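This section describes the prediction task in plain terms. A model, or a person checking by hand, is given the sequence of a single protein chain and must write out its three-dimensional structure as a string of C-alpha cells. No templates, partner chains or ligands are provided. The sample shown here is typical of the held-out split.
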Amino acid sequence: MGHEKKIGNLLVGLGVFIFGINFVSMKFLVEHVPPFTLIFLRFAIASIFLWLIVKIEIIKSKENKKIKKEDKWSVIVTGFLGVGIYYFFTVLSLTYISASLSALICAMIPIFTLVTNVVIYKRKCEMFLIVNFIIATLGVLLVLDIRLGDEFDFSQLIGVIFMLLAIFSWIAYTIKTYELQKKYDSIYLLYKQTVIATMLLLVVALFDCAKAIKLLNQPHLWSVLIGNLLFVGIVCSALGYLLYIHGMKKTGVEIASLYMNLIPGITAVVSYLILKEDMNMKKVLGIIIVIASLYAVGLRDWIRSKKNNNLTIQ
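The expected answer:
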C-alpha cells in the first residue's frame, strides 16, 4: 500500500471513529439538554468553525466564493433536509432508543437508498437487494431484543420511526445535494447549508427556552455539557467530515464507503463502555448481521465499479 493510501485510510478511519462516537455524545446530551436547544447549539458552533475554515480557504486561494442565484433555493432546501430535519428526528429518536440502535438503523442508509430507487425511480429490484434488506431488518430486530411474553415497549417503536424519518430526510438531502456538489466546494456548501439550518433551528429552539434556562441552575453539569457540545459541534459536525473527505480523495469513494459500515460497531462498543448501555449476545449478533449485510452491498458495488473501470481502460 502506497504512502498516500495509508494516510487516506488513516484519515477515513479517524473520521468514521468520530462519527461513531457522535451518537454516544448526542445520547448523553439529549438526556440533559432540551432537544431543540441541543440541535441549535450544535450547529451554531459548527457554523462558526466552518466559517473560519472557509475564510482561511478564501484567503489562501484568493477566490471569492458565492452561491449562484439559481442555486440558492436548492441550498436552502438541502440545509433544511440534511441538517435541520435529519438531526431533528435523530435527536428525537435518541430520547427513546439507545445510541447503538440509532447508529445501527442510520447505517442502513445505503440499503434504504437502494429501496428508494426501486420504489420512486422504478429501478429493477434485484434479489440480492431483497435478501440483504431482510437480513439487515432481522439484525435490527435482534438488537431490539423483543422477547416473547414480554410487554411490548412502544417507546422503542417510536424511536425507530423517528430514526427512519431521519434516514429518508437524509436520502432526500443526498439526492438534492448531488448536483450542487458538482458546482461548489464540499466544505463551502456544507458551511452554507449549516448556516441556513442554524437560522431555522433558532426559531424552533425558542420553544425550549423555559427548559434550557433550568440548566443555569445546574452548574455541576456545565463543564461536561460544554465539552460534549464542542465535541459534536466542532469535531463531529466539521472536523470528522473534513478528515473523511480528505481521506476519501486518497482512498477512493468505494473504499471510504466501506469504512462507514463500521459506525454501528464503534457506537455499540463506546456506548457500552461509557453510557453503560445494556449489551447481550443477541444484540451483538444483530449488530454483526447488519454490518455483514452492509458490507455485502458495499463490496458488490466496489467489485462492479472495478469491473467497469477495467472495461473503460480496455
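For orientation: The two ends are 24 Å apart (CA to CA).
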